[in-house]
Amino acid sequence: MSCFREILKHCFLEKAGEANFPSAAAEKWGGVSLPESIIAAACARSGQRVLHVDSRNYYGGNWASFSFSGLLSWIKENQEKSDVSDECEDWRKLILENEEVLSLNKKDKTIEHVEAFCFGDQDSAKDVEEAGALPKLPVFGASGAEGVAQDPDKECPPLESAVARAESCEPEKAASVDPASTAEGNDTEVNCENESSHSLSSGESAPDLGKAEAAPSEVSAQEPKKIMYSQIVREGRRFNIDLVSKLLYSRGLLIDLLIKSNVSRYAEFKNATRILAFREGKVEQVPCSRADVFNSRQLTMVEKRMLMKFLTFCLDYEQHPDEFQDYKNSTFAQFLRTRKLTPSLQHFILHSIAMVSETDCSTLEGLQATRKFLQCLGRYGNTPFLFPLYGQGEIPQCFCRMCAVFGGIYCLRHSVQCLVVDKESGRCKAVIDHFGQRISANYFIVEDSYLSESVCRNVCYRQISRAVLITDQSVLKTDSEQQVSILTVPPVDLGQPAVCVIELCSSTMTCMKDTYLVHLTCPSTKTAREDLEPVVQKLFHLNTETGKETENEELEKPRVLWAVYFNMRDSSGIDRNSYSSLPSNVYVCSGPDSALGNDCAVKQAETIFQEMFPTEEFCPPPPNPEDIIYDEDEIASEESGLSNSPETKPEPSPEEKISEFL
Questions:
Q1: pTM of the entire structure?
Q2: How crowded is residue 412: how many other Cβ atoms within 10 Å of its Cβ?
Q3: How many helices (H) and strands (E) does the chain have?
Q4: Are the beta carbons of 199 and 205 closer than 8 angstroms?
Q5: How far, in Å, CA of 416 to CA of 102, rounded?
Q6: Helix 654-661 / helix 394-405 crossing angle, nearest 10 deg
Q7: If we measure between CA atoms, which residue out of 243, 246, 9, 2 comes closest to residue 108?
Q8: Structural contact between residues 2 and 155, judged by C-beta atoms closer than 8 angstroms
Q9: For the stretch 567-579, what's the b/e string if a residue is b when 16 or more beta carbons lie within 10 angstroms of its beta carbon?
Q10: What region does 630 belong to: left with phi over 0, alpha with psi -120 to 50, or beta?
Q11: Can you list the residues of the chain whose pLDDT is less than 70?
Q12: Most CB atoms within 10 A, among 439, 452, 552, 586?
């Protein structure tokens, strides 16, 4: 997938400054984030012509992943917020008398309060160069960033499909697969390089979990290696840092879409290995599956029976309405107190299984969240979650690749000045880009951040508080260093949001060896630093000095090497009618929401696609070469050499297109 990013940039961006697009397209996109990418892939797959442009110089928008140097460039860009000037000042001459202009934003205002901190010696990295960095491409267009802010400099995995890699592996060489991962028959395929792996296919097979390098599972009795800031800079290409932190539910809408559309062939995934809880100032592991519950030493035998009985009830709670009918108007936390559960069990269920608010979540919402968690267990592993290798930013690129394979055109660093609206019909007819080129289309999909203040004047946005840390140890040490963990830290005060913490190890291909990448997320009440720093101080050691005055308890905590805080706009759930003067054929896609999963983006993408093309199937699987049937007339005409036109030739298979593209 990282190689695909580089290929796309060279195919569509190398001469972006000279780009002349088709004067007409069926669909035109602004922004390359997840919902737009899914819609673009669905439209291209159904035979529509797609032009997909973005003023940014990287894929994914606010769903993107960056190398460490790329993230530093992104931080600098968002702290400076430099003005963008028009390259073509006479574009208004292209507007006809019966047309009006709907201007678009030239600056991204979705990121605020960016604060970065280095807890090491920054001076030591002054003359350090990033290992293996490629020369920066020149910047064209109206993007304010200098250089390539994303990571064409990532390590490129082999270009063969994950299925082919899995078939070529020897099962003996792979690590043992947890029994829970085989709960659905032959879901599991063994992948190379000493790591259990799964491959998503159109059946019930799972996403390719793992081509990641295996790490030795040793008990680290020694102190962790001291990581210097200069090492982080030098190994910056090994980091893939997500702007938005999410996991994929193994039975969620995104996994189902990846399987159905066969887009899963472009990505690999790793199981989240453990669910953690923060209780009484300590981090501990939560038993989730039946095996975990009965093997747990944290719970007494009575508590184990209580927990299993309640979880069994949650799986089919709708069949027993008499047990929760009286508590429909109560919170889920109040309902748990009536179930004769111990305080520790209530804490585990509320914060680590249902993962809901103690004050705002109703009983029905809590039961639904608990059932969703339980239904996702055992499909691909002992937890309900999967994480894409190389970061969440790979997912939008997977759908961009599918769109490109079926004829979609992509161009980054290419901004759009305005939408051209017909006064009589009220429909958008075209866009004008920053080179003054007018491009017509039938439908326009625009990311919310591109809309001007006049269009969004009645919109009330929420905010997400985000923090990203690079640490030297896990929050909970175990025999294995290669753990993907999710932890919910409950709020200190009632009414405040809980903080979701996702800790990634180096085998996820998101950080260098001997470090961990930690993401913290919660709905905003203040700035990101004010919301999240108290949680960081509870879990991590921030002081760079390790003198005698530092308590032993602090020294046992993981040490933060580097951190960044920022607030991100949450534009999800906004009604279309909230936007002023929006043409009927212009559709708005939201940015990331604060939820753990990706269901909101998938639902939005499918809804918009069905509004545009109600008779078309949403993201059908591409045809296999062996399934293509040629009629006798086509065969005869091809053999006689009478038909050489593209219209009468059978469409190449996705595999053939991919091979030509690569």
A1: 0.80
A2: 23
A3: 17, 23
A4: yes
A5: 11
A6: 100
A7: 243
A8: yes
A9: bbbbbbebeeeeb
A10: beta
A11: 1-30, 81-89, 123-125, 127, 133-224, 544-555, 625-662
A12: 586
